[in-house]
Amino acid sequence: MKRADSTPRIIFSSEHGIDRSLISPKAIEVVDSLKSAGYSSELVGGCVRDLLLGRKPKDFDVTTNARPEEVRTLFRRCEVFGRRFQIAQVRIKNEVIQVATYRRFPTKKSRRRGSKFVSLNGKIIKDNLFGNIQQDAFRRDLTINSLYLHPSDMQIVDYTGGYEDARNGIVRIIGSPAERFREDPVRILRAIRFASLPAFSFDGATEKELSVYAHLLSGISNYRLSDELNKLLFNGRARTTLELLHQHEILRILIPPYKWLKAGMNDNHGVIDWMRLVLDATDERIQSGEHTSLAFTIAAILWPKFNNSLKKRSRRKRNYPFHVARDILHQQNIRTYIAGNVAQRIEAIWFFQKILETEDTTKSTRLVHSENFRPALRLFELRSKVGEVEGRKCRAWVKLRDQLVDESQPRMKRYRNRPRWR
Ligand code: ATP
Ligand code: MG
């Protein structure tokens, strides 16, 4: 990696060959407007990384030397959000472009732990010191995420060696991995997410510190961690992500009901193999463009825990499945936020399993119309794959679902229109 005081490398369009048509015209419009107003501006971060990898970016981030309040005056529909990290959001038609002002690290003195910028355990609490583009590049998380692209001449500006790393598939933290993970442990999960991309792997120094600082994730808000979990589960690479999380002993931190899971130890409950099955199925659905929900995926991941706990609890207690479900979801919610409606659907998917096991398929056509029938049946299908329920019973339910598909269409339409993670 380059030093903070070095001159940047410029990569011309003829060398990187990015397809300009993959860039959102609205993002280009935002950059152009800032430039016409006399500011500097370029595309940055995830969109440049994705463009280099030949992927269509899902959103576009713009940087500039204009302050958030200056950005606000330039655009008709623009709001400034964030406390720790202020960012302007420009809306053009139905697209939102994030515009961030260049930032810099606090000076060495104010970077001391216990200062107003950094907490006693090294976590960044305030990150609103504006700087220049070079300083901005070095305070980003990974080299592959710190490339700047000028859409006008399609030149890439690289201060940290991110271009070579993107070409060679290397996930490398900018600066000292220990310090950067301590400042913001979420970078551990971000590093894992990008290392799960095809042909990507960790740089040695970055990899070494992942498990050392993973425990700090317990100090991050459950809202922020649930956002990251969504990205890990639904980027089409969940199975590879699972292996990385397990290998680096992060899985048991992210999914507290399985806190006993240690990499290299005998997984005698078969939980890891079960999760492999679940996440292979999730990846397949994403790759074929099918709907998948957070409720289903969490219900499936935590199913062995629910099922085993159910067997252990005294059946004499009233509503015992309900209490078991609440306990497990409570433990999970401490780490990754689970909204009330998602928790309800997870419980419904779990409770439905008993019905699918015991009800007679020929007499239960009404069940097919129930809102949670489909995700519950998908879990039932996975269970039948591992021999937990009868294959014959599962095929009968699948047949019934497929026969009644036309009738259930209006309900399914509403269901599909919901955001993907509900
Ligand atoms: P994706 O949009 O696929 O989640 P991304 O890299 O664009 O990936 P964003 O959250 O949109 O992620 O962040 C935009 C950019 O901001 C990143 O590319 C990176 O340069 C910087 N960034 C994001 N999170 C951090 C962090 N925790 N520490 C330092 N820089 C960060
Ligand atoms: Mg992004």
Q: Layout of SSEs?
A:
Blueprint (H helix, E strand, L loop, with lengths): L8 E3 L1 H4 L8 H12 L4 E4 L1 H7 L8 E4 L3 H7 L3 E4 L5 E6 L2 E7 L31 H6 L8 E4 L4 E4 L3 H7 L1 E2 L5 H7 L2 H10 L5 E2 L1 H10 L8 H12 L4 H10 L3 H4 L16 H17 L6 H19 L7 H16 L4 H19 L14 H13 L5 H13 L5 H9 L5
Parallel strand pairs: 3-6, 9-10
Antiparallel strand pairs: 1-8, 2-3, 2-7, 4-5, 5-6, 7-8
The structure holds adenosine-5'-triphosphate (ATP) and magnesium ion.
The site of magnesium ion has 4 residues, from loops.
Account of the protein in words:
The structure is a single chain. With 422 residues, the protein is of the alpha+beta class. The chain folds into 2 domains: 9-175, 2-Layer Sandwich (Beta Polymerase, domain 2), CATH 3.30.460; 222-406, cca-adding enzyme, domain 2. The protein is 48% helix and 9% strand. It contains 19 helices and 10 strands. It has helices spanning 13-16, 25-36, 46-52, 68-74, 133-138, 162-168, 177-183, 186-195, 204-213, 222-233, 238-247, 251-254, 271-287, 294-312, 320-335, 340-358, 373-385, 391-403, 409-417, and strands at 9-11, 41-44, 61-64, 78-81, 87-92, 95-101, 147-150, 155-158, 170-171, 201-202. The strands form 2 sheets. Strands 1-8-7-2-3-6-5-4 form an 8-stranded mixed sheet. A hairpin with a 5-residue loop joins strand 4 (78-81) and strand 5. The longest helix has 19 residues, at 294-312. The chain is globular, with a radius of gyration of 24 Å. Bound molecules: adenosine-5'-triphosphate and magnesium ion. Adenosine-5'-triphosphate is lined by residues 45-46, 59, 61, 140-141, 145-146, 184, 186-187, 231.
